[in-house]
Here is the input.
Amino acid sequence: MRRLDLALATVSVAVALAGAAALAQASLTPAEAEARRFVEETIDSVLGVLHDTGLSLEEKKQRVESIAYERFDFPLICRLVLARNWNQMSEQQRNDFVEAFKKHLSATYRDTLDDFKDEKITVQGSRPEAKGDVTVMTLVRSSTGDTKVDYRLRKVDAAWQGIDVIIEGVSLVQNFRSQAQEIISAEGADALIQKLRDKQIDLDTRKSG
Amino acid sequence: VVVAFGCAGSAPPEDPWQAVNKPVFRFNEGVDRFVLRPVSQGWEFVTFQGLRESVDHFFFNLAFPSRFVSSVGQADATKASTEVGRFLVNSTVGLAGLFDVATPLGFARYDEDVGQMFGAWGIPPGPYWVLPLLGPSNPRDAVGFVGDMLLSPLFWLPVPIYGAGVLNVVNQRALYDDQIENARRTALDYYVFVRDAFMQNREAAVQDRAARSRSPLSGAPASDDLYDLPDEETPPDATP
Here is the structure.
């Protein structure tokens, strides 16, 4: 009798929990559910590479880079960064900028991987945005504290793609847009592309030196 | 460097005080490069990471009154009570705040301050303002910072211990050295990078608060036109 009570209680608790979980799931739009899954998969594959003891640091960096190239829409990010300036640029300048910016971001990102230690990453929530975009909020916990990292995602040709990273409220797109605007209005688009390339050389020599 | 001196002509709308801000920024950069960073590297050399983290936790715990008052001032019972819980746990079990045992126990860590409280009251930040030695700010947050100081227990000690404040700054500089140097190396225009990051971060800290007090699900994005693509146009050299 006691056992049956216990079993019944367990079952009812389990049912209640499942119901609550289903309810929480139900409040997510299908787009949010997809976007969250996309972010979770990306985090898992990056952490999988970083925790793989069979890989050298250089191999890890290369694999993380290819994951990033696959999962972020770099040409779109470039257009958002350049905003109205994009329309004033020639085809050549646009292509040069996309190429240089992509290299710049990946070099910056590779640099930060050196500092990666025991960080734990969890998905905290999501919210639907205008134009069918979804923002997925994550929290990176390390021994020095928590960092809020949000990803803005957009469905491009039936596949989700990252179009912005927002760290502690600071959007990467907005931040680069301010810098690009300043340089373009003072010195022009070619100077901006040249600056990206110069920085690239600095970072490369530092890496090998 | 010569170019940087020559472009003080027209200030952008987001930085009307640029003519004053830029020289102060350069001064602060010099202080960091020749004084603060070398000192923090010395500190890093004679300490270990766990100690530096504990020093940071200690000062963070000590700044409890400012976070508590700011939470109460925004009528946020959850944050205020969480702060009290954190302070009690970390001051006792956490050995005077040296260890953050509250976070793993489920007490969330909030970074409220008086400037954010002013923001939640609807006070606008005012223009971007680089303060000597203190760095990026604005009139609202500068006044808020004075409030934070007045609420610090260190300020009310019978004998002022300036060394404690200095230690906190040096220690934090050491803890965030990687991030700061990384930003310096990779930014295309470091002055604009810092200005934009500061303004976005403060705005988000205040917005986060305002969004949550409306309803837990209505966190509207701050500026959505950021993600609008301008109308597709062919490059100017390709148009007939």
The CA atoms of residues 97 and 193 of chain A lie 6 Å apart. DSSP finds eight helices and five strands in chain A. Chain A touches chain B through 57 residues (CB under 8 Å).
